[in-house]
Write a structure and sequence with these properties.
Blueprint (H helix, E strand, L loop, with lengths): L2 H23 L5 H8 L3 H17 L1 H11 L1 H19 L5 H15 L3 H9 L5 H9 L1 H20 L1 H4 L2 H16 L12 H4 L2 H9 L1 H32 L3 H29 L1 H21 L3 H13 L3 H10 L6 H16 L1 H12 L2 H25 L6
Amino acid sequence: MGWQYRNVALALCTLAFTATMVARLAISPVVPSIVADFAVSKGAIGLALSGMWAAYALSQFPSGVLADRFGERRVILTAVGVTTVASLLLSLSPNYPVFALTVVALGAGAGLHYSVATSFLARHFEQVGRAIGIHVTGAPLAGLVTPVIAAAIGARYGWRTAMLLGASVAIPVFALFWLRVRETPPARPELTLRSRFELGPVRELLARPEIRYTTAMAVGGAFCWQATASFLPTFLIEYHGQSPATASALFSAYFVVHGASQPILGTLSDRIGRDAVAASAFGIGVIGYGTLLVASGRLVFAAIPLVGVAMSWGAPVQSRFIDHLSETERAAGFGLVRTVYMLLGALGSVVVGTLADVAGWMVAFGLLVGLLAIEFLLAAAAASRASSGPL
């Protein structure tokens, strides 16, 4: 793969990730409208969103298996195509059950992309932390504009029209990816799909000390990321009294910082170590989320960048996974560990939404502070032991 084509492929993988993220992030800014329209609780919407993220997580491992069998390009195109269709169907949902099922389908389709694209890029970039950091910016890029646009469209035309944002981005990205990315040969075409789902190899991979430790780091981070993506605008509106427009602008600011810090943290992790950078991100998160709970006025605004940096933990932690997987394991293996930690992390939406209903936002977001403190200790312990060899 030449330098120019390799970077074109990186850019298009990043845009494809952006497209799948736009469709999911368009929901959060209009949660109050959806709650009112369907006459359901925030916990019910949180359940639907947790279902979306759970389906997203469950797609990670099968996506890697499919990529090994059929090639990455086909799987990524499928992810973007399903995202398009699901976005269109969301706008037509007649009731909450149909809405919830469609949200889950959106998560399942979007989940086919990330692990496959990451393994594809890891095979072609020596500085994998930097490549992953750039690829991950697809999510912040979506977050930069989606909340503000979705909130504005929702306020003027209704939440159903806001759901069309995902399709409007996914369609041109699908076309570009189809035209510019070459067909990719399958890495392991001789293996049957059934053989890849045997429990023995799955248990063996997950039981490796380095994989197990990294998964523990990732679970708490994913839980906090899901909860933040689902409820940060609503938290700012209900807990701090911000207007929907201001809350959406702050949500976008969060993603700006998130996007800018991803490649920086990824590059730093290439140079000074995954664990030290991950510990720094989690520690900053304790400060940022803690400030959101106890501060008021301009200090709330100042906390948003800290939250953005904290939620960039993925660049060093995901690179840590790649470091401990062989080249032939990366598609299915990385998909497997992402399924595990994201499935557990998907509980963030329903748990935080339910806690907000029954105990208030102080308790709900206080849980995030506690989880990030635990993740900080895990990463700091790994960093302190790095000189003595593998865990």
